[in-house]
Protein: 3 alpha-hydroxysteroid dehydrogenase/carbonyl reductase
Organism: Shewanella pealeana
Amino acid sequence: MPITAVTGSSSGIGAAVCAQLEKAGHTIIGIDRIADDKFTRIAADLATAEGRQNAINHVYEQSKGTLDGLVCCAGLGVTAPNCGLIVEVNYFGVTSLVTGLYDALAQGTQPSVVVIGSVAANQQVATPHPMALAMLDNDEALATQLANEDQQAHIAYAASKYAVTSWCRQTAVNWGPKGIRVNIIAPGAVETPLHQASKDDARYGEAVRNFVAPIGRNSEAAEIASVVSFLQSKQASFIHGSVIFVDGGMDAMMRANTF
Ligand code: NAI
């Protein structure tokens, strides 16, 4: 029975991933800000170094040091309390956890990491933004400072998703020889509390509501979770370092000639 850790397990995409992986026979170790009696066994704040280390320690304890899967769903959108938090959770909350759990993944059976990125990674960050470069330099203080000075949540969000996607692809190259697969899913608009908050937002709501995928609707969290389930299965054994758009055609609409 595969043991899989899932961040953001209490809501939206993360909760849907837990439900589908559990159905597929995985033992789930959920991580979120507050523990619950469903999937979230570990309460940890992934915005802070202490919280991330706390999560890593508890995963080692609960998995007994062997992890077959890691799915990073925890994230903040444009309605986050401040722009620095977007960077802290969406980038450093992912890279620290993936790196910190390397030893457990290396012990796993056909281990696989999936990180939830976003179609937004390719929007607004045509050339790497200084904020994204600071993230890729692992300079959390500078990246959060730039985000908080800029106060443009959509830029911080896009930069965090661009940087985390680039980091995952670099990690895929390094970890391929170790047999640990790493992939990124880039969703479009998914009906979750995060997306609802964006639609209701005074600053961004209208733009978010008007940005509709060619397929003519937003996705349900389960439609993202089913792709995660596939990537975590043996059937996906040669998919590695890929960015998989699950976006109803949004990326094709924005960048038909770039692939
Ligand atoms: P959600 O708000 O429903 O779930 C996010 C989860 O992350 C929540 O349970 C929350 O408590 C957790 N989280 C946030 N900050 C945390 C922290 N500091 N420490 C621990 N846990 C924390 O959002 P949703 O939509 O399910 O988002 C999941 C991922 O999908 C995010 O990375 C988001 O950026 C990404 N995404 C979502 C899209 C959408 O339209 N909903 C589109 C593209 C990407």
Notes: Residues 8, 10-14, 32-33, 45-47, 73-77, 89, 116, 118, 187, 189-190, 192-195 surround NAI (CB under 6 Å). Residues 17 and 228 are 7 Å apart (CA to CA). The chain has a mean pLDDT of 97. The domain at 3-247 is CATH 3.40.50.720 (Rossmann fold).
